[in-house]
TrEMBL record:
This is CopG family transcriptional regulator.
Length: 99
């Protein structure tokens, strides 16, 4: 009887360790997928008021890109300029320069 109890305890510990490792693997896979998708996405919310001093310079884009930007602006209530500034800031923050 004592041997059965020890065997049961050992088996339960092994099962718990396997389950724990499996859960850790699932958690790590999920975190990696979240990191991968968040790196590729540019996520914005609705516009909040902000008044600050800005510098200007000309920017030329093709007609199709302008239409896409305008569609995004309509959905988010940001001006085209504000949207482009946020996109530029996102790119600067996530820029990796390679040789």
């Amino acid at each position: 009887m004592n041997i059965d109890l020890k065997s049961n305890i050992k088996n339960n510990i092994k099962k718990e360790n396997k389950t724990s490792k499996l859960n850790d693997n699932i958690k790590n896979d999920t975190e990696n997928k979240i990191e991968e998708t968040s790196i590729n996405k540019f996520t914005i919310g609705k516009k909040k008021e902000d008044k600050s001093v800005r510098k200007s310079f000309p920017l030329y884009v093709d007609g199709e890109m302008q239409k896409k930007l305008d569609d995004i602006c309509k959905k988010t209530k940001y001006s085209r300029n504000e949207l482009i500034l946020m996109m530029i800031q996102h790119c600067i923050d996530n820029l990796e320069i390679t040789d």
